[in-house]
Amino acid sequence: MSVSSPNPGDLLHSAFYRFAPVEDVPALVNRLREVTTDLLGSILVAPEGINGMIAGTPVAVQMFENWLQGQPGFAQIIFKHSECKTVPFGRMKVRRKAEIVPLGITGVDVNAGMGVDVPPQEWRDLIRKDDVVLLDNRNSFEYRLGRFRNAIDPQVENFRDFPEYVLAHLEEWKAQGKRVAMYCTGGIRCEKTSAWMRQFDIEVLQLQGGILNYFMQIPDAENEWEGECFVFDNRIALDTHMQETPTTLEEVYQGEPDAEWRLRRARQLDGSDS
Fold first, then answer.
1. Which residues belong to the active site?
2. How do residues 219-241 score in pLDDT, each as one tens digit?
3. What is the DSSP string of 135-157?
4. For residue 214, how far is the Cα from the chain centroid?
5. Distance CA 156, CA 17 (A)
6. Chain segment 99-131, per-residue pLDDT in tens
């Protein structure tokens, strides 16, 4: 298989991230570029950790994953696998960033602590409880495409807008004795947000591994989930069985005020906002 013109059926998609201190970011970036020559995708590296999505043959993906788990701080990294009907990326990019996911608030250190991880098997019971506020920690277009039943859409156009919504409702939730349960695609946005929210004296819980992990672990996930899950690659969306759907980018962004910009950005196959 040639990486430049692969057969989609030969590809395995792997999504991953890990908050762990990286002492020498440029060195890790350079090494990643060396070990991903047989892969497609996008990887971000920052002092706070790593965030990436790759695709390649199962053998190439496994070799990379084994290598990454052997690097300092990444032994416990979790990989979420899914099949490909469409080639998800056009090339391989490894980039240095200030953050692997920007919340828009400086000084948030996930490595110093975050909210409580809730395994998928326990999430189903949690979100049915009356004392829980269920927040979708994604953009509104992602929420419209698919969501957990009874989840709140904070109606944000960018992850950086999410803290404003939280601050506007925080005192109300606390007065009602509520706990906050959040979910996002892979878990990374929730970990960053919950690390910031720890200062506000409210219990914060997050779906471990995000929506994709829930789909992987819960065979009948459709009982709690409505619609599809947007993914930041050429496959566009997955169903609850981690299978690619026929949904198009035009359908995803329909009605968005910045639809044209989002279409152009998505077609660059950046994959960095996962």
1. 184
2. 999 999 999 999 999 999 999 99
3. EE-S-HHHHHHEEETT-B----S
4. 12
5. 23
6. 999 999 999 999 999 999 999 999 999 999 999
